[in-house]
Amino acid sequence: MKIAVAMSGGVDSSVAAALLLQEGHEVFGLTMRQYNARKSGYSKNEGIEADIKDAQTVCDKLGIKHFVVDLKKDFRAIVEKNFIEEYSAGRTPNPCVICNPTIKFGKLMQAAFTLGADKIATGHYIQINEENGQFKISIPKDASKDQTYMIWKLNQFQLSKTLFPVSQFNKPEIRKIAAELDLPIHSKTDSQEICFIKDHYEDYLKDHIVFKPGDITLPDGKVIGKHRGLALYTIGQRKGLNTPWRCSLYVMKLDVNKNKLVVTENPDDLLAAVFELEDVNWIAGEKPEEFSGISIQIRYNSGPVPVKNIQEKESSLLIELENSTRAITPGQSGVFYRCNQLLGGGIIK
């Protein structure tokens, strides 16, 4: 089989390529140039250009071809545009969730097919299995590296053309394999969360959004300070408010219409058990026959929590949790699981 490996320049995708070669496949590397390094504040020895160089070095070591696909225009028009629009609307987006179905498993996958690939492989820690023609996603061996949360928007065709070779290993094992193969990136640190932003996202947003200062208020409307612009805050945030007060304050709500940042002294005010999901996608291509036994994960670094009830509305789902949970944040993903299997997800409204 001819397989294009999406090479990020990191250890996981590098080992993915090596494992597929060992299995006897015809392999080539494919790296996307998705942002302008200079505009993002990176030097030529940092960011995407450095990653492309590392990917090329690994491919040379493995004796395989390496191609670079320029997707800056598409990435800017889809992922960065969504990122800016969501923050402007007082929401907190996850750019990887948008990038995966449209860019990495979209435009990059199409480029792989154009170059003759039968399938694409990545270094994601995601378990994929086929049962009766249905492709199912579950948590990998190394649950601490689980990345299933990021791919809930993928469809069956994309999954049918994708391999995740590192899912049967834990991260220390992957680094050991890389060292044994003398791959030059075996000790390279893992990449940052948002690839196109060098430091803090504020430095990026200030070039695209006009920050409008406004009032910081308590839930009763009492003004206690000034915020620097709603895009700089997110639900549940405690640090960075720069408002002297008798105790810790937590961001409770971003009121875009009134340009107010509502904060609270009581962290229990951040608890909620009911919320809506929009832009819903089911991995199987259709909703489950029944919703029993489903849990939902509301942010990347938290575990799934049990769902009590799911009510279908015209263009969204109303979710009721078994127990209240903290800081349910508009713009983030709510991702459904049953046991260890990914079912789908949606965007928190």
Question: What would you say this structure looks like, in words?
Answer:
It is a single chain. This protein has three domains: 2-180, 3-Layer(aba) Sandwich (Rossmann fold), CATH 3.40.50; 210-265, Roll (SH3 type barrels), CATH 2.30.30; 270-348, Translation factors (Elongation Factor Tu (Ef-tu), domain 3, Beta Barrel). Helix content is 24%, strand content 29%. The chain contains seven helices and 17 strands. It has helices at 11-22, 47-62, 72-88, 95-114, 156-160, 171-180, 201-205; strands at residues 2-6, 26-33, 66-70, 119-121, 127-131, 134-138, 162-163, 214-217, 223-227, 250-255, 260-264, 271-282, 294-297, 305-312, 316-326, 333-338, 341-348. Strands 12-15-14-13-16-17 form a six-stranded antiparallel β-barrel. Strands 3-2-1-4-7 form a five-stranded parallel β-sheet, with helices on both faces. Strands 9-8-11-10 form a four-stranded mixed β-sheet, with no helix packed on it. α3 runs antiparallel to α4 (95-114). The protein is globular and about 65 Å long.
Would you count the extended β strands for me?
Answer: 17
- Provide the CATH topology of the largest domain: Rossmann fold
The percentage of residues in β strands lies in 25-35%
Report the major sheet: 6 strands, antiparallel, barrel
What are the segments in which pLDDT stays under 50 over at least 5 consecutive residues?
Answer: none
Helix content: 10-25%
How many angstroms separate the termini? 42 Å
Rg, alpha carbons: 22 Å
* Total domain units: 3
Instruction: Walk across the major sheet and give the strand order.
Output: 12-15-14-13-16-17
Q: What is the helix/strand order?
A: EHEHEHHEEEHEHHEEEEEEEEEE
What is the residue-averaged pLDDT? 94
The SS-based structural class is alpha/beta
Determine the oligomeric state from the structure: single chain
Overall 3D shape: globular
Question: CATH-wise, what's the superfamily of the largest domain?
Answer: HUPs
Provide the CATH architecture of the largest domain.
3-Layer(aba) Sandwich
